[in-house]
Description:
Helix content is 8%, strand content 14%. By secondary structure, the protein is mainly β. Strands 4, 6, 7 and 8 form a 4-stranded antiparallel sheet that branches. A hairpin with a 7-residue loop joins strand 2 (51-53) and strand 3 (61-63). The protein is globular and about 55 Å long.
Amino acid sequence: MRLLILSALLAGCLPPAEGLRATPPGAGPQVVIDWDARPFAEIPFPNDLATVPDPDSPTGLRINLSEQASTEVERRARRRLNTLSGFGIFSPISVRLSHRLDLDAVKSHHEWGMRPQDGAVLLIDVDPDSPAFGSFIDLDMGHGRFPQDVVQTDRYFPNDPHATSPSLLFSGVDEDLNGDGILDPAEDTDGDGVLDTPNVWPIGGDPRADMLTWYELETDTLIVRPVVPLRETTRYAVVLTNKVVDQGQQPVRSPWDAVNHLRQTQALEPIDFLARNEV
């Protein structure tokens, strides 16, 4: 499966050279791009920008991740990842943003029974050779199809400082013991240098009942998953529409002059057609 990321879909702007649309002005959250981040570049993922051309691959692409690591186990794993011809057909899609979204506003466009094409975040088949070309894929955004909590929390390794946390992926522990908002040495129980707070919504909610599974508060990362497996050797596009807004109701913005990376313009042209025809 191949995946493209379109940072925003906003009509009414003149197209920049090779891009679908110019990025409108504003103060909304930007999609975070950091090519120099280590151990991996900071980009929406999965993403064709993390691949290189390979004529021997079924998709014409091969994953291209840094193989630099501190242990041979990590290096070997990355070498094997770089033999893959695409990404998972059922894996989560993550996009980090520069600041906090209005989570309630975004979630309101992804309630049960709503059409996937009416969502704030869209996943679209843009492969002309696909029998489902142009179709919208339903996304799970905290609907419970992919539970992230564990029943027995203390069975993973001895002396686990977060043995009571109900999730392996998200923080369920409040390390701010004195409530001053500052990480003190004695409070950093897992040694990660971050003052952990429960990833719950609303803030202050129950770490299990209110666990937020489609957004990580610590890094302001949006996480969505396709409800059904995607087709192999097929290109899809992720679209963050102007319904994705921050707490000041400012829409999401691209980090580039155009709403998309110029290397992906041709593959994203079906998105432009859908936008112009308000499908």
